[in-house]
User: What shape does this take?
Amino acid sequence: MNFLAVASLAVISLAATNPGFAPHSARPAQNQQSDREATKERFRQSLELDPDNKEAVFGIARILVEEGDFASAQPLFQKYVAVSPADPGAWAYLLRCAVALKDPTGAADAQRQIERLAPVNLALHAQAACWLAESDFLGVTAREFDLVMSMLPSQPSRTAPSYLRLGQCYERALDTDRATLAFQAALDLDPQTEANYLPLAQLLAKEGQAGRASKIMKDAVARFPRSLAVWIAAGNIELESGNPERALESQRQAVALDPQFPGSLSLLGRIQIAQGRHSEATATLERAAKLAPFDAAIHFYAGEAWMKTQDGTDRAFEHFKRSLELDPSRAATYYWLGSLYFHRSHDYRLAARYLEQAANRDPRLEAAHQMLIQSYKRLGDDTKAAEHLRLYQHLFQQQAAPEAPQ
Amino acid sequence: MTGLRLVGVFALTLFAAATTTLDPIRFEEAKAPRFSTLTGRTARKYLPQTMGGGVAVFDYNNDGLLDIFVVNGAAMPGLTKDGPQYSDRLFRNNGDGTFTDVTESAGLAGRGFNIGVSVADYDNDGFEDIFVAGVHRNTLYHNNGDGTFTDVTERADLARPDPKYGPLWAVGAAWVDYDRDGLLDLFIVNYVRWDPKTEPVCEKGGSPDFCYPQAYAGSPNSLFHNNGGGTFTDVSASSGIRQSIGKGMAVSVADFDGDGWPDLFVSNDTLPNSLFLNQRNGTFKEVAVENGVAFTENGAAISGMGVDARDIDNDGRPDIFETALLNETMPLFRNLGPVGFEEITFSSGVAQPSRAKTGWSNGIYDFNNDGRKDLFAACGHVMDPQGSLRATVPQTNIVFANLGDQKFADVTSSAGAALARSGVHRGAAFGDLDNDGRIDVVLTQLDGPLRILHNVSPAPNHWLLIRTLGIKSNRDGIGTRIRVVTEDGVQFNSVKTAVGYASSSDLRVHFGLGRRTVVQRIELFWPSGTHQVLKNVKADQVHTVREP
Assistant: This one.
């Protein structure tokens, strides 16, 4: 339900990590594809000569996993482990296949083998635990996750990225308890790296643990007082935690380090939005957009600020559209454009088009579904309206389940 | 019933064209009875302490004058009225601008931490009764007709705790004859599940402060069917009301879908609003999302507070005016009929001025009698007035003048010095205290004095107050929809007392008539189904209409 918080947090990440965000070129992906086809062909030829060629069986199975063809990959890995039962890597891939194919027995078997063959291989177990994050296999997932966490005391600081990635996997899977533990582990292992603070603080802020999030970022700014990125991140966390005044203090520190850094202006603009000073916010974010014209997040916030002024609808449209050109992946941007077309222009056809895009990119975006219901009703398409009502109700019931009456 | 709506559609523009200049809205501070809504202030913060403040204006002794009833808090965390300072109060209107405290003789001092009030004649005996909503304890007072009241909560079977959640925290209520059997039923708005023993500790800016609603679980609302004979049956589950868990703050009753049956809109705090459409068989269907009133254009649930539903554009369909938290705006939903509602907060001009306010009780009334209903919201922040945000907690109230064409202007600054006074306002009840045809406002403030905003709007406009007396319908005529035709056009309104947050307003239905001295036609659509027509009714009177 808390769409705004989710949307803005999503864009924080964008701002924090990608100040000059631009769409990826398609070229490297095409190269990768043709390389993969060539390798696969080479393995196929090897298998024609020798159907038991272990290297070829493993290689082609791995490519199939990369391609998402788990049903074809699984029997090949099974064939491989029949010949080489002591290769934990192969068992890990079998675990991956079992997760994708919703095969709890296969997953449990693979997990046991990995644990037996490589009991202290952190990288392997972290990867296995990561794959299991998206599964419904509660017992196996708990076992593997606990195993990775039990290795923590003996780990050197350089293994922190494994825990960071693990946290990201569980955050994606909406298992915030495990994500928090993993992020905390990464930070405990390596507090000298800035990047280990932000994911934990963001997650805690999103989960309403404002005090803890704030404390983590206080530690971060104490350790990295010259880091612009840390001050900006600290400001964003305070803002998300509902403390615009503290956010403003962080923003001032960032400005002191670099008065022209667009991220500082962007943060100031967001603080002004949070404080209801929308006219000031538009001015601030317009300045930021001039300094960083290719920053999708800044255009997004500028759109948000303009939208909240009495005569800013046209300018809001422009900024949201520009943000979308620069980053066509963000559900929130499609949503706001859909909302503007719906509420301000009363163009329900265009509204539906943008809102569908938002819902496609983030199917859990309740707000898109509820506005799509309205759009389709206005367009006279009761079937689609009913379809989105069902989707909305499903999402809402998932959230409300613990409170459902008897 | 369909006819009412169709006629309204083409009549819509007529009234808007009649008055070309904006008649000013003016209030002056009138002497109010001595009373403060006490919250049982403590160093540790308990959520009920930021709520409360319910107020009612109604005529308890049938002398034709609106009296004032206010609820009060209690010592915390015990929820006990451990001294007379916590007494609820009834003030009799003496008709000369003064009031007399008759609480003791009326037997209305009350118990517990009370939040809201709803008034109606539930037993059709000709005297207005009082329902008091409170934290873990509600009270129904029967008006004995001799200036005294009797607590009949137990006898009415309204004292039972919720079967699953135990005693609930009620904020307000509405009297509504949902099955049109001539007896007023009771809809109770319940807020969050709360227990002083498990109250979380929160802070803001380093000071202890009230926790956000997200820290508490929601609860279902309640619906009690009036059996007659002074008893009620809990039909919350069988009616479908109980299926929706919310954090209810207020309810407004109106026939939103124009089928002649009363529907219910409930504003929820940080959860989607609820719209319960009457299925005409004793059940309701919750349809807020599909009708576009669950959320604002942000797609997020707001901190819904007070609500009133009346027809702001005289198209025959009741619209919705809701109050919300600072920076959220006060949503205005226009009823479009079968396709649902559209939010016109921005296009109407309400968004910007209301964004700076936290609104509580509110009402849609024609304050300048120009024939267009205006908007009023009582304002004050939710946070601790002595906490880190203290500077932002007291707020001025806000009043919007209806310009026609679904446009409103914030006229607070020109509405008199009384509107410049800040306070931690909560309740607001609307009614004509001096029977001069102009709607006054009675306001409560947390830990602050009761206020009366006397309407002194200067335009020489005419008016009509209609008091309905039901025969086959409930005696108050609650739920009666009224269509009024003058040379300037058509207006619509309906009989209700549940208005705004925690408050209960004048039962009489008010119409501003602009420069017109005669109402050509009045149509009343009674809950019984009776359609009554009156012709050529003189303006500037309280006109009592008896159901034929």
Chain A touches chain B through 38 residues (CB under 8 Å).
